[in-house]
């Protein structure tokens, strides 16, 4: 923001550590996915952390991205005709994207805060959110994902198993190997140290 001065001391150290987490290669992959998902109308950012931030800052590209993951007719984020120019409208647009991302299935701990993007406080967190969103889209495999599926890791899915009553009863009779065996166990021949001395 305009009234924010330079950081000194511990604040600068913390900010530099946060900035080091930003991944330029990941930025390229995310830009490729967003363009593949939304179409070339979203344009491309200038390379680098600041260019990426400026591209996403008004929330329009993010809103188009999350809308493209839903079937036609059920778009969760309303996109205005003209991109918002007022600060609070841009932040509101980002907040709508974050809500839609959570509704889509992104875990709350993977969701960035609005200021992380708007003030470029933590662009690595923005990357994490987009990665989580991409992973969910690949995992759902509902036909709304566009792009190379190898760009994102598939999330683990539940694989429920059904057992019959006889299989469950059979399992109760088996002693697991980790429990060991007590056959032939006794304390015969065991001695530890010297016997107790009674001194009078």
From TrEMBL:
What superkingdom heads the lineage?
Eukaryota
Q: Which SMART domains match?
A: CH (SM00033)
- Provide the residue span(s) of the region labelled Disordered: 179-200
Report the principal subcellular site.
Answer: cytoplasm
- Calponin-homology (CH) domain segment(s): 24-137
Q: List UniProt keywords, sorted A-Z.
A: Acetylation, Cytoplasm, Muscle protein
Q: Name one Pfam family in it.
A: CH
Record's Gene Ontology CC terms? cytoplasm
Q: Which family does it belong to?
A: Belongs to the calponin family.
| PANTHER family reported for this sequence | CALPONIN (PTHR47385), TRANSGELIN (PTHR47385:SF16)
Which protein is depicted? Transgelin
Question: Which organism does this sequence originate in?
Answer: Psilopogon haemacephalus
């Amino acid at each position: 923001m305009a009234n924010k001065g330079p950081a000194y001391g511990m604040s600068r150290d913390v900010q530099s550590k946060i900035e080091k987490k930003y991944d330029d290669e990941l930025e390229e992959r995310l830009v490729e996915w967003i363009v593949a998902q939304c179409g070339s109308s979203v344009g491309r950012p200038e390379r680098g952390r600041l260019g990426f931030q400026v591209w996403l800052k008004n929330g329009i590209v993010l809103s188009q991205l999350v809308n493209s993951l839903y079937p036609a007719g059920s778009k969760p984020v309303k996109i205005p005709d003209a991109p918002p120019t007022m600060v609070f409208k841009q932040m509101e647009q980002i907040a709508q994207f974050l809500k839609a991302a959570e509704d889509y299935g992104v875990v709350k701990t993977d969701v960035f805060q609005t200021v992380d993007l708007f003030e470029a406080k933590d662009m690595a967190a923005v990357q994490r959110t987009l990665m989580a969103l991409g992973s969910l889209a690949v995992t759902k495999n509902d036909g709304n994902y566009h792009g190379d599926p190898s760009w994102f890791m598939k999330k683990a899915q539940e694989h429920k198993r059904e057992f019959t009553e006889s299989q469950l009863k059979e399992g109760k009779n088996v002693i697991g190997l980790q429990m060991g065996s007590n056959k032939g166990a006794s304390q015969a021949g065991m001695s530890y140290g010297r016997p107790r001395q009674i001194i009078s």
